[in-house]
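Attaching the record inline, Q. Sequence:
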Amino acid sequence: MKYNLSFLPEVEEDVIAGYLWYEERAFSLGEEFVRMFYVRVREFLSEPLLYQEIYGGFRRCLLRRFPYAIYFRVDGIDVVVFGLFHCARDPHTIKGQLLTRDM
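Structure, as predicted:
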């Protein structure tokens, strides 16, 4: 099945923040972070229902190499990415931020 993909505006801010943090640590590490984000999005877009629901219809896909998770929802053929969060953050805080982000 082919899915439609969209991103909430906050996701761009999440990705840029991660990029800047990693780019300060090592040259081109931020670029690798962004590349891995899009690789994982492409991977889960092919079979988004394989990813477990974490809460309230949100599903999570972990990045490889970086301690981040992509949170998304599936509604029919629409996949909406709601956020990219560091895995060390409090799960209740992540849940609260996801619920405040509007489509």
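The chain has three helices and five strands. Residues 18 and 30 are 7 Å apart (CA to CA).

More tomorrow.
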